[in-house]
Amino acid sequence: MSHVKLFIPGPVEVSPAIHQAMAAPMIGHRSKDFQALYREVQPRLQTMFGASRGVFLSTSSAWGVMEGALRNLTVKGVLNGCCGAFSDKWFDVAKRCGKQAEALKVDWGRPLLADQIDDALAGGRFDTLTLVHNETSTGVLNPLEEITALKAKYPDVMFIVDMVSSFSTVPVDFDGLGIDVLLTGSQKALALPPGLALFAVSEAAMERAAGVPDRGYYFDFHEFQANHDKDMTPSTPCISLIHGLRAKLDEIFAEGLEARYQRHQRLNRMVHEWVRRSGFEFFAAEGYRSKSLTCVANNRGIDVAALQKLMRENHRMAIDGGYGKIKGATFRLSNMGDETDDTIAALLAALDDSLSHLPA
Length: 360
Ligand SMILES: *Cc1c(COP(=O)(O)O)cnc(C)c1O
Fold this sequence. Notes:
By secondary structure, the chain is of the alpha/beta class. The chain folds into two domains: 5-12 and 256-356, Aspartate Aminotransferase, domain 1 (Alpha-Beta Complex); 16-253, Type I PLP-dependent aspartate aminotransferase-like (Major domain) (Aspartate Aminotransferase, domain 2, 3-Layer(aba) Sandwich), CATH 3.40.640. The chain has helices at 16-22, 32-49, 62-73, 85-96, 114-122, 144-148, 174-177, 203-210, 221-228, 239-255, 257-277, 304-315, 341-356; strands spanning 5-6, 56-58, 78-82, 101-105, 128-132, 134-135, 140-141, 158-162, 181-185, 197-201, 281-282, 293-297, 317-318, 330-334. Strand 3 (78-82), helix 4 (85-96) and strand 4 form a beta-alpha-beta unit. The radius of gyration is 20 Å and the shape is globular. Pyridoxal-5'-phosphate is lined by residues 10, 61-63, 86, 132, 134, 136, 162, 164-165, 185, 188, 194.
């Protein structure tokens, strides 16, 4: 059986060049070679994050850091902005960590707006806010800059931002926006295999964490900082993935960040044009649509599972059939990672062919 290419919104397709880079000989995690590798990836990661304090590398998926951020920072209470499966789950995780948590919920497909967050924070009940920038389940891109502008009004609230599925597809400025924790994962737009989370932490967040006695070990921000200062990680990291990351950064900076952002915007627009010309609608509200994936509303009432099957069997392509409670009512197409005009054109042609073979 030939390989089925991934157009699901994570994990995404990983190139042979990255697999090759990950096959580099193993090195010790307390060796000079490792320190050199760690040091080498920092400047480019800092540029991408806009984070002058450095970028921590965690051997975990993104959820490890999403949970860890709450354990490091939430003392009084956390406001969880909820607009889809990932952001809703973060509220659940906060409660499971024993935190005083409150959900600010909007309907799936709608964005979280700064005014709504302002109203909720105004009561003074929270010292932490969680926000998912790009809600991968619904295809909503929340207005990050409008929301982080609230930081000036609520300096004691720690703003934790998940950019798991938007990082490297749109610009971000961690320092400039005043974000306290910005996190992403390897298997979405970075097009690396799963298993590595990357995150930046503000000085204020480090200070908050210092006063939290039960922040644990594996995701302790101060363990990360102390080891970062020696170009290392707290425990043995996924060294092969960091080799892959170095190769990916070479590719990203050869393309150029601005060119990369424009490519994702252009490919996303190609998918959007296909949605319109195919008579489908968008699940996400206009003006708040993701640039890295498209959540297509199944207003035509097609058999999504049958479409997935035709895509897989006839075209060796995997698309997603909708997440959780909107499975079948939506389907999702990713334009993250290494996709090009040609590969997205091939995806759209395959969708047209598959749709023409569906029973009317
Ligand atoms: C994929 C995803 C996550 C979870 O990532 P894991 O790697 O499974 O931990 C969190 N948030 C968003 C927005 C995601 O897309």
